[in-house]
Design goal:
This protein has 12 helices and 7 strands. The protein is an alpha/beta fold. The chain has a 5-stranded mixed sheet with strand order 3-4-5-6-7, with helices on both faces. Strands 1-2 form a two-stranded parallel ribbon. Helix 2 links the parallel strand 1 and strand 2. Helix 7 crosses helix 12. The two termini are 31 Å apart.
């Protein structure tokens, strides 16, 4: 996710390479890769980055948040902190920092790699409107960005955070079906991808509800109706709703687990 953001920010002209500095704990080879590919500065000295930065992006694994924050607390003043760590609440980060800070939680998805992420952000009370707009501009460089309440981020995680995997699963099933009805895999893949792109563009460009667009494709007693009937019989809609709800619940469970584990470790 960090690399996707770097690529989007540079490609979109929002930042010059020399304005971006990246640190990690010990993987020098990975830092050299990023320097070679994007022309950015890299270091293992996270304290120096924090001192010099106006915006700090936390993009380590959630379990490494305490180690990532250790050593930089004394250097946090009025910088904006953006976290893309799933399951780590603003309250937990504030506790680990030991002070109030301008913190924004962000939930992008993996489509950030191609600048098509659907990102939602939630801000602490210490964040200014100017900082919110700055954060939105960062994520709009890799897709779209919506401001939500923090208690809605679990739902965002279950919907758009995990959403690309649901679509990939759908494509897997459509590819298997295509082969079973006699199509060549490569032909099926191209047809499926274009079908998804076209349907997405139709939804994005039309004022009509998706249910209306579906009805317009579904002629009485036609092929589409026959297929939709099977999806309804198999509980397709119920399965998807349950899928998003369970992923949302799991996001909440992980948030609670991380919070409790970090508090325990901190004690």
């Amino acid at each position: 996710m960090a690399e996707a953001m770097i690529a989007g920010l540079i490609k979109g002209g929002l930042f010059q390479p020399e304005q971006i500095i990246v640190a990690n704990r010990s993987n020098t080879e990975r830092l050299q890769e990023l320097t070679k590919k994007y022309g950015i500065e890299t270091t293992h000295n996270k304290e120096k980055i924090v001192q010099d930065a106006t915006t700090i992006v936390l993009a380590m694994k959630p379990k490494d948040i305490k180690a990532g924050i250790d050593g930089i607390q004394d250097h946090i003043d009025d910088q904006l902190i953006i976290s893309v760590l799933a399951g780590i609440s603003i309250e937990t980060m504030t506790s680990l920092l030991g002070k109030q800070a301008a913190i924004i939680r962000a939930m992008p998805n993996t489509s950030a790699t191609i600048a098509k992420s659907a990102t939602a952000i939630a801000a602490s009370e210490d964040v200014t409107m100017a900082q919110i707009k700055k954060c939105q501009s960062l994520f709009e460089a890799i897709g779209i960005c919506k401001l939500v309440e923090e208690n809605h981020l679990d739902a965002v995680t279950g919907l758009s955070g995990s959403g690309p995997a649901y679509v990939y699963f759908l494509v897997e099933a459509m590819e298997k079906a295509a082969v079973e009805v006699g199509l060549e895999p490569d032909v099926a893949r191209e047809l499926i991808v274009q079908t998804l792109l076209g349907a997405s563009e139709m939804i994005a460009s039309s004022d009509k509800h998706p249910s209306q667009l579906r009805k317009e494709v579904t002629s009485p007693n036609g092929t589409t109706e026959a297929g939709i009937t099977i999806l309804q019989q198999k509980g397709f809609e119920e399965a998807l709703i349950s899928c998003v709800k369970r992923a949302t619940e799991r996001s909440h469970e992980l948030k609670t687990m991380f919070s409790e584990a970090l508090v325990t470790t901190d004690k």
